[in-house]
UniProtKB/TrEMBL annotation:
The lineage of its organism: Bacteria, Bacillati, Bacillota, Bacilli, Bacillales. CDD domains: ABC_DR_subfamily_A. It comes from Salinibacillus xinjiangensis. InterPro entries: AAA+_ATPase, ABC_transporter-like_ATP-bd, ABC_transporter-like_CS, DrrA1/2-like_C, P-loop_NTPase. Belongs to the ABC transporter superfamily. This is ATP-binding cassette domain-containing protein.
Length: 302
């Protein structure tokens, strides 16, 4: 049985649809990445699931109950830009959040203390939040989302604003939290999605364009990929390569070129003819496997 079933979910602001007809399910115990470029509709989707905004169409059920019930016992939410009262200590803040979730003062105090230890900021219980680093604030935000022992934790871009150390800390924490609850987190960073998620929901312009495990998506979309390196990047290379009949997608980064092809053999022949005809300084030709980044770029550039 799924923990959440989303059916035909749409949201429009002033007549403009920003989330379009999403249908998906989240199974208990999974960590799912909601992946998409800026403006794809990730935050809006999470806000719909958290009950902060109402859908224009469609419905969401948690444990087979509709969203119209009080869902505070089901979800924990970390917004993309969490706001803290800097003058409060971490403990004070969590106790305050716990009481908002109907915990008694003593229950909230006990839970707050456990959670600060759990997310690795136990030493800062009595420190004012204004003194916390970015990584510590994000850990506190995650602790806040866990106060009501939710079945589902939703984290909106939990690591995007962090430096590499903070990012590593929070990704490690997410890997640990997978044992306790279902996690849905949004990101536009492919490595993060690959590193911690069991499944991916790929969102583009408000639509769910792909969904499945990393292996499923890789197998489903595995196509030929050719990597070329030139000693000098010729003019109009991208435009010329895109004209070759079997080439599906071309990315040029300085002197390296990635080509996605529907027919590796045919593309090789076309490419070598093109390189010879133009007398281009090709220094490397390699056949590679497509990655999640290739799939993402292909979908997003369509
Ligand atoms: N309250 C609102 N009123 C009007 N338009 C909105 C509102 N909230 C979001 N939008 C629009 O909906 C679209 C999707 O925004 P959303 O924040 O959900 O995307 P996102 O994928 O989270 O983007 P980002 O990665 O940049 O945070 C954007 O075009 C945004 O301007």
């Amino acid at each position: 049985m799924s923990l959440i079933a989303v059916n035909g979910l749409s949201k429009a602001f002033d007549g403009k649809q920003v989330v379009k007809d999403l249908t998906f399910q989240l199974e208990p115990g999974k960590c799912v990445a909601l992946l998409g470029p800026n403006g794809a509709g990730k935050t809006t989707t999470l806000r719909l699931l958290a009950g902060f905004t109402r859908p224009t169409e469609g419905n969401i059920t948690f444990d087979e109950q509709s969203l119209s019930t009080d869902i505070r016992n089901y979800v924990g939410y970390l917004p993309q830009f969490p706001v803290f009262h800097n003058w409060m200590t971490g403990m004070e803040f969590l106790i305050y959040v716990g009481q908002l979730s109907y915990l008694s003062k003593s229950e909230a105090t006990e839970r707050a203390s456990q959670l600060m230890d759990r997310v690795g900021i136990g030493d800062a219980k009595k420190q004012r939040i204004g003194k916390y680093s970015g990584g510590m604030r994000q850990r506190l935000g995650i602790a806040q989302a866990l106060m009501n022992k939710p079945k589902l934790i939703m984290l909106d871009e939990p690591v995007s604003a962090l430096d590499p150390i903070g990012r590593r800390e929070v990704l490690n924490l997410m890997n640990e939290l997978k044992k306790d609850a279902t996690i849905l987190f949004s990101t536009h960073i492919l490595n993060d999605a690959e590193e911690v998620s069991d499944e991916l929901l790929l969102l583009h312009r408000g639509e769910l364009v792909e969904q499945g495990s990393l292996d499923q998506l890789n197998n489903l979309h595995q196509t030929g990929k050719i990597e070329l390196t030139f000693s000098d990047n010729p003019d109009s290379l991208k435009e010329d390569l895109e004209k070759l009949s079997t080439v599906e997608h071309v990315d040029v980064h300085n002197r390296s070129v990635n080509i996605i092809t529907s027919d590796e053999d045919a593309t090789r022949k076309e490419l070598l003819q093109y390189v010879t005809a133009k007398d281009l300084p090709l220094t490397k030709y390699e056949v590679a496997k497509t990655t999640l980044e290739d799939l993402f770029m292909k979908v997003v550039s369509k």
